[in-house]
């Protein structure tokens, strides 16, 4: 089976959890015999092949004619440019008018109406820098796909949905829309109407939707009006780079870690409030905020105004190796996200032997047992838990060991088998509903 994977992230191109989720899933699928052709938003017109687990670690970049690309650093799209609407039509229209004939079509897949394609074309011509990158990605996907073969299209999150819909329209292939997060999560509300519309079109006109949690499925049902049977829940797994975890003890005090993008969705201001209340008791502890985002400067100023600036360490953006070092340094990881589709950080924290406090408003809380699950707004409860763990180190050590043992079962093997089953059902029956 050949799958065309559309994703905006893959190691080493990582912005958030999407890249690591795709890595784990793609590697596990390749072990099951799935042949993957992956498209990333690189300036070079290349695709990446993953035919076995080794190639998942070192995917081979190939030009559109199939020739391997000489080793060279690839670049993400980096344009600030407004493209006229008529140029979008001019670039994409020829592809739509040269639809290849379908031969031996066994099942009927959901049709993408012409008005949807026209609406997407209108959206991608709005002059927004990010939307222009989405247009370039869509254009590149169409061009490269003309010279390759695949059985179905698997698109990961809204940035790749336009490309998925265009390819579905052109090649009459089934489309799976993988929902790792929604605009409602990112913005803690309706967010940007254009992104909301792209998500709506991608989810509505795909043949199957994969949600990373029941929490995310609920959001899709509430806001996108999808039939429940169309959405299949496949929880994320975890792939550890380091096989042997070595805890690092650099401070006498316990280290309490926040790890993630510094956006309202992740709850970093809640973490600051927790830190202030813990420190106000006179307890000695180190608080670390690891990650980057638009709230970084605001959080630094807020920590200073709270009088706890000297007790909070801001790391900025971390590489994958630095993330693992931060997790090795920590004793307690707090994930106070108001809205978290899944939260792979939770599994990473457990693997690196951390006591975990996670919000109930997160997908990972659906499958984890050995962690404290608290409503994101219940700061006092989280403070109470932290103080209890610090005052009872043997209790914290026991929880850390249980978490490390539990996370071993959250491999990508199970999720990959579920996804492969959805592929097979979709190709055979035209839908993924059971």
From TrEMBL:
PROSITE patterns given in the database record: PROKAR_LIPOPROTEIN
One GO MF term attached to the UniProt entry: glycosyltransferase activity
Gene3D superfamilies, sorted: Glycogen Phosphorylase B
Domain annotation Glycosyltransferase subfamily 4-like N-terminal: ranges: 115-238
Xref: InterPro entries: Glyco_trans_1 (IPR001296), Glyco_trans_4-like_N (IPR028098), Glycosyltransferase_grp1 (IPR050194)
Domain Glycosyl transferase family: 242-404
Pfam families cross-referenced by the UniProt entry: Glyco_transf_4, Glycos_transf_1
Protein name: 4-alpha-glucanotransferase
């Amino acid at each position: 089976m050949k799958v065309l994977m559309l994703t905006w992230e893959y190691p080493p191109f990582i912005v958030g959890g999407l890249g690591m989720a795709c890595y784990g899933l793609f590697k596990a699928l390749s072990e099951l015999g799935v042949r993957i052709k992956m498209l990333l938003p690189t300036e070079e017109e290349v695709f990446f092949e993953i035919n076995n687990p080794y190639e998942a670690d070192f995917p081979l970049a190939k030009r559109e004619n199939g020739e391997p690309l000489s080793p060279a650093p690839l670049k993400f799209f980096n344009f600030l440019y407004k493209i006229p609407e008529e140029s979008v039509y001019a670039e994409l229209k020829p592809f739509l008018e040269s639809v290849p004939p379908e031969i031996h079509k066994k099942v009927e897949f959901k049709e993408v109406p012409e008005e949807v394609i026209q609406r997407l074309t209108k959206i991608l011509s709005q002059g927004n820098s990010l939307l222009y990158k989405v247009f370039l990605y869509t254009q590149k996907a169409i061009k490269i796909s003309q010279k390759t073969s695949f059985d179905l299209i698997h698109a990961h999150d809204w940035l790749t949905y336009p490309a998925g819909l265009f390819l579905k329209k052109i090649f009459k292939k089934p489309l799976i829309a993988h929902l790792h997060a929604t605009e409602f999560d990112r913005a803690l509300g309706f967010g940007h109407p254009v992104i909301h519309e792209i998500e709506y079109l991608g989810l509505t006109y795909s043949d199957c939707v994969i949600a990373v949690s029941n929490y995310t499925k609920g959001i899709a049902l509430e806001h996108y009006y999808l039939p429940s049977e169309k959405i299949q829940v496949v929880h994320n797994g975890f792939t550890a780079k380091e096989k042997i975890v070595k805890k690092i003890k650099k401070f006498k005090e316990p280290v309490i870690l926040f790890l993630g993008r510094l956006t309202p969705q992740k709850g970093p201001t809640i973490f600051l409030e927790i830190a202030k209340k813990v420190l106000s008791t006179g307890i000695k502890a180190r608080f670390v905020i690891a990650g980057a985002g638009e709230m970084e400067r605001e959080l630094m100023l807020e920590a200073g105004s709270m009088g706890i600036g000297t007790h909070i360490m801001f790391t900025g953006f971390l590489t994958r190796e630095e993330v693992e070092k931060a997790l090795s340094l920590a004793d307690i990881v707090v994930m106070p996200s108001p809205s978290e589709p899944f939260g792979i950080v939770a599994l990473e924290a457990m693997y690196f032997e951390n006591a975990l406090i996670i919000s109930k408003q997160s997908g990972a809380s659906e499958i984890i047992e050995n962690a404290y699950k608290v409503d994101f707004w219940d700061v006092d409860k989280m403070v109470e838990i932290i103080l209890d763990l610090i005052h009872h180190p043997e209790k914290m050590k026991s929880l850390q060991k249980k978490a490390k043992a539990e996370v071993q079962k959250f491999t990508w093997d199970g999720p990959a088998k579920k996804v492969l089953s959805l592929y097979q059902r979709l190709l055979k029956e035209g839908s993924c509903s059971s």
